[in-house]
Structures are given as C-alpha cells and as structure tokens.
Sequence to fold (191 residues):
Amino acid sequence: MNIAIFASGSGSNAQRIVEYFKGKDDVKISLILCNRKGAFVLDRAKMLGIPCVTFTHGEFYDSDCVLNMLKDYKIDYVVLAGFLWLVPGKLINAFPDKILNIHPALLPKFGGKGMYGMRVHEAVVASGEKLTGITVHVVNDKYDDGDIIFQAECDVALTDTAEDVAKKIHELEYKFFPVVIERFINIGSEI
Ligand code: GRF
Fold:
C-alpha cells in the first residue's frame, strides 16, 4: 500500500507516521504533499528521504495536478496530518473512504472552518472543558465532518494554557495516529 501525507506546517505527525511505517513491508509512505513553500514539513521530508512536493491553491482546486501526482505514485490511501485546506470533491471521489484526517479535539466539538491548530486549544481552554482529545475521521467534502473512526481523550487541568493542551494533544497524536492508520488500512472502517 502506498500512502501520501498532506501537511501544511511543522509536520511532526508526518514524521512520526513515516518513522512508524519504516521497516514495514506492506505499507510505504511514498509522498509528502504541502501547500506552503518553506513549511518545516518539507525539511523533515528531505531528512527522512521521502519525496515531497508543494502545490499552489490553483493547482489544488483548478487543475488535476495533485490528482495526477497521486496517480503517478500509485497512492492507495491519503492521510491529512495538519493539512489546512478543504479537500476538493474530485480528490474525495478518486479516493472514496480512503482519506483520513486527524483533528486535535473531540469532534463534533471544536471543529469546522477556521478551527485548526492553536485556535482549537484556545477555544477548549476558554470554554472551561475538562476533557479534550483527538479525533481521526474519514474525510468528506466538509471540514471535520466525515465518519469518526477513533477518538482518545486527555484531561484539561484548570491551570492548563492552550500551549499545555497542545502538548498533551501532540502526545496523543504521536501515540495513536500511526496505529489507527495501520488498522484502518488493514481492516477498513470497522475499527
Ligand atoms: C496537529 O495537532 C493536528 O491535529 C492539527 O494540526 C497539528 C499539526 O501538527 N490538525 P504537526 O504539523 O503534525 O506538528
């Protein structure tokens, strides 16, 4: 199975996923795609020896450029790991139930357009929630809306800042996301 990872920023999840699947014969992280020139995920991809490409807004939404790259690399599954753009219908149709996203909160809470990165954690802290967590879901044509396949929780202490919550969330993501991807590939959405 060939997996492509889409990321927009630092790419620490992308790195954990690459490291997890290194040495596993049946799954290969074949390509990292990024919508932001200069994003640190591109440095990580080079360091890890994974082919990486960037694309523009126009290439993503108004051309088949990204789709063709995925075909060229014979991609079977797509993983969004900190990728901020809405996935266009043509990609979803080309990979039906084969695109996973991770969201840094317990959907359906704290999801939707504009809810990404630190904004999510700031909203969690401001709302006084005692629990937050991560959600892995199948991607459809709306933000943070597809079928949920996995969630894990962590506590939010009264004294936690958004940065504290971000650290806890990253730990959960590193621990669970690669394993959830592997199980999804092997057994489908029945997990
Ligand atoms: C993660 O918390 C992910 O859930 C969210 O954005 C963050 C990306 O972090 N969508 P990184 O780029 O993987 O370090």
About this structure: The beta strands are 2-7, 28-34, 52-54, 77-80, 99-103, 131-138, 148-155.
